[in-house]
Amino acid sequence: MSESPTAEPAMVLDYRDFPAFDDTAQANRKILTDALDLLEQGDHDAFWAIFDPEVTFYEASCLPYGGAHEGLEATKRGYAFLCEHFSGMHAEFEAVLASRDIVILYQTITFEVAANGNTGTLPVAELFRFRDGKVIEWRAHYFDACMVANALKG
What we know:
This protein is α+β, with helices and mostly antiparallel strands and 154 residues long. Helix content is 29%, strand content 40%. The protein has a single domain (19-153), classed as Nuclear Transport Factor 2, Chain: A, CATH 3.10.450.50. It has helices at residues 23-40, 44-48, 72-84, 145-153, and strands at residues 51-59, 67-70, 86-99, 102-113, 119-131, 134-142. The longest helix is centred in the first third of the chain and has 18 residues, at 23-40.
């Protein structure tokens, strides 16, 4: 009689092996919040300075500016292309949460599409993954990317 292979668990709970809010998480959170404070004051260079030259910026593939933008210059171009689609955008940053190398910026965004005037409001969680004090991954998680895509189409 042969033994059946061990089934993989449905969940792997890696977080159990790490403190929820260690010194690294605290430092990474401060890097992001300090950069956002400076960005609010108009210092765009301070915001971009937190990114690693090899950062990858991800946007939902259903959006015209979607996909993976690899490298700092491509990330800047991808973000500028995103901004070109909107004549108005307001973000209310509600929480900045950190654990290990990940910082989450939870916000509500209200937008107006430049091409057609369509508007919308939705929650967005942006993930910033850090390595050695620099962001190596920036990923936007839209509550409803299809709503944004439909608003952009008009």
